[in-house]
Amino acid sequence: MDTSETMQSPTDVAQKPIVYVIGLTAALAGLLFGLDVGVISGALPFIAKDFGAGTVTQEEIVSALLWGATIGAVISGFLSKLLGRKNTLLIAAVVFALGSLGCAVSTSPGILIGVRVFLGLAVGIASFTAPLYLSEMSPQSVRGAMISMYQLLITIGIVLAFLSNTYFSTYAAIHGIVGGHWRIMLGVLVIPSTIMFIAVFFLPKSPRWLMLKGKREEAEEILKSIRRTEGEIAVELAEIEEDLALKQSGFSLFISNKYFRHAIFLGICLQVIQQLTGINVVMYYAPKIFKIAGFATTAEQMWGTVLVGCINVMATFIAIAFVDRVGRKPIMYAGFVIMGISMSLVGIMFKIGVETHHALSFVAIGALLLFIIGFAMSAGPIIWVLCSEIYPLSGRDLGITVSTATNWIVNGIVGVTFLTLLEDFGHGNTFLLYGGMEVLFILFFLAFVPETKGISLEKIASNLLAGKRLREIGR
Ligand code: BGC
To answer: Which site in 121, 158, 241, 294 is 20 to 30 Å from 348, CA atoms measured?
Structure first.
């Protein structure tokens, strides 16, 4: 039997506490990701008033971060290979801090757009590097939960941003303030960025990256501090060496190896799927959806949005609890069934017309919250988990670059098409469309997605390169 399977049982989770400290620290990148994604919806009305910005300019201010993030994801493959995962996270923290300050002092929409592209670089770099680093530092028996911590912090960042949005908009309404508060909302993010820089500074380097750079002794030293037994360390080092025996890397591996191309295809599809669940329709437009559902006051819409954020955080714990016990795929199936049913229900309520009966408003919002649970327990964390597990070490930077950039591109497309869809296609039909897509995605999982619970990254890689079908590379 394979050593990687006998070494640890998947349920054996008593790891050294330092492993979790490292996980939480690296996952701080997710907090900043979430804060930056969540803060803009609340800051935008103030910015618009202050600068007298029209719809197009507002859209540019919002999407600037997404395009920056796409560029960030693309360059971070190169950065993380050259400078290492830890140094790349440090760079992200610096860009986060400078970008947050830059936003706070922007004097025109043009400058703000430029600074948000710059800030987006940090979000993109962080969204690439954190799951990669986490996957490489984690013992295999808790790898799923460790990478899910990154998603947990994204969701906490989003909810904190929603809360700050609600606080500032309420405060501004009470005191009759027209603009100005957005500078604090955006600038305050310099604090978590600085905390992230200091915390990441003390993180160890990834042993896999060190091996990639030929620094075996240093890699071994780090493994000694984060693994429990000599046996585990020996097996891990041997597996990494075996993985590195593959002489080609990155793009040349992509050209020459069709199995690696298959993994790239899988990563792209997984991130397209994550975004086409429609999650960011809810994250970016929650107040609007509450309005469509019949909740007319700003307070109802803002607090409703905070509720969405809180449920997003809480349901992520379902994934953390089960991803390494039950496995990735069962949770994905459950989550997508829930999302399919709930999105369709929202669509049906909007088609019937929530104005016909107030109870329907509550059914629609109940279904929306159920959708969030479905996403947070499955696609939210697990797509990031899978995308950091399916590539061989020599192609991991390229693979995760491509999948992460895909995430940001489709994120942008969903964001800019939602309002048009609502107008041209109708409220009900738009949500039914998203509901229907979840069913197609389940079929995709059945056909192509491997179960990667309790198996080493190197074993997954050797299965892939030996030509096993994608669905089987986790066995
Ligand atoms: C997605 C983001 C989304 C967030 C919501 C992440 O996994 O990549 O696009 O906004 O989850 O929690």
So the answer is: 158
Q: Which two tokens stand for residue 1?
A: 């039997």
Side-chain half-sphere CA neighbours of 30 within 13 A: 26
Residue holding tokens 């919806």?
Answer: 41
Going from the Cα of 354 to the center of ligand 1, the distance in angstroms, rounded, reads 28
> Which string of DSSP letters, residue by residue, matches 172-229?
HHHHT--SSHHHHHHHTTHHHHHHHHHHHHTSPPPHHHHHHTT-HHHHHHHHHHH-S-
CA distances in angstroms from 348 to 114, 368, 463, listed in the order given: 41, 12, 44
**399: its two tokens:** 């693979």
CA dihedral angle for residue 251, residue 253, residue 257, residue 261, rounded to 10 degrees = -50
Tokens standing for residue 102: 């830059």
Percent of the chain with pLDDT strictly greater than 70: 96
**CA 46 – CA 103 distance, rounded (Å):** 13
Write phi, then psi, for 247 (nearest 5 degrees): -80, -30
Give the integer Cα–Cα distance in Å for 315 and 292: 25
Whole-model pTM: value is 0.89
The pLDDT value recorded for residue 140 is 87
pLDDT at site 59: 82
From the alpha carbon of 383, which atom of ligand 1 is closest?
7
- Please give the Cα distance from 369 to 444 (Å, whole number): 25
* 420 CB-contact burial (10 Å; exposed 0-12 / middle 13-18 / buried 19+): exposed
Would the CB of 277 count as within 6 Å of ligand 1?
no
Ligand 1, pocket-test mutation among 33, 283, 375, 403, most atoms within 8 A of CB: 283
Q: How far is Cα 305 from Cα 164, in angstroms, rounded to an integer?
A: 12
Q: How far is the CA of 283 from the centre of ligand 1 (A)?
A: 8
Atom 1 of ligand 1, residue of closest alpha carbon: 380
Closest residue by Cα to residue 35 from 110, 97, 85 = 97
* Stretches in the chain below the pLDDT threshold 70: 1-13, 177-180, 248
